[in-house]
Amino acid sequence: MKKLKILALLSLTVSVLVSCFPKASQVIRSLPVESKEQILSQYSSEEIAEGKVLYTNHCGTCHDLKEPESRTAEQWNRIVKRMIPRAKLNDRDGQLVRAYVIVNAKSS
Ligand code: HEC
Fold first, then answer.
1. For this UniProt entry, which segments traverse the membrane (predicted)?
2. What CA–CA distance (Å, rounded) separates 65 from 18?
């Protein structure tokens, strides 16, 4: 009986922990490849500006900040899926950074 209680408590703790820290990468990974136009229709200019701040603060810690213009929207779509989890951004912040770099990407 005691064992069962401990087991129940343990599984409860695990499920609480998991729900508090959802994998930030999952949402980002499932996003489709989007063009500048698609991003602009989904995010306000305030959100894009916030994305720039987040980008500046979080994406230059391991390497120099990469210029958004250095890559195409398609390339950024691919790269952010790897970098957002590295920068430990949550889903919302990750999406804003993603929106910022794609909007300012070089045209392919
Ligand atoms: C924890 C360290 C770390 C953080 C934080 C980080 N990066 Fe990186 N980044 C790397 C490493 C290591 C590489 C080189 C290896 C690779 O490409 O995976 C890299 C490579 C890159 C490249 C070149 C990849 C290519 O294929 O051209 C870009 C662009 C980039 N990062 C953008 C970002 C952006 C945007 C952010 C913020 C969301 C970010 N990085 C945050 C570690 C980091």
1. none
2. 32
**Which ligand 1 atom sits closest to the C-alpha of 76?**
29
First-to-last C-alpha distance (Å) of the chain: 65
Rounded Cα distance, 36 and 32, in Å: 13
Candidates 29, 54, 55, 63: which one to mutate for ligand 1, based on the most atoms within 8 Å of Cβ? 63
Domain regions of the chain by residue span: 23-103
CA 48/CA 9 separation, integer angstroms: 43
Q: What is the CA radius of gyration of the chain?
A: 18
Q: pLDDT tens, position by position, for the chain (108 residues)?
A: 678 887 887 777 776 666 655 555 677 888 888 899 999 999 999 999 999 999 999 999 999 999 999 999 999 999 999 999 999 999 999 999 999 999 999 987
17 Cα–ligand 1 center, Å? 28
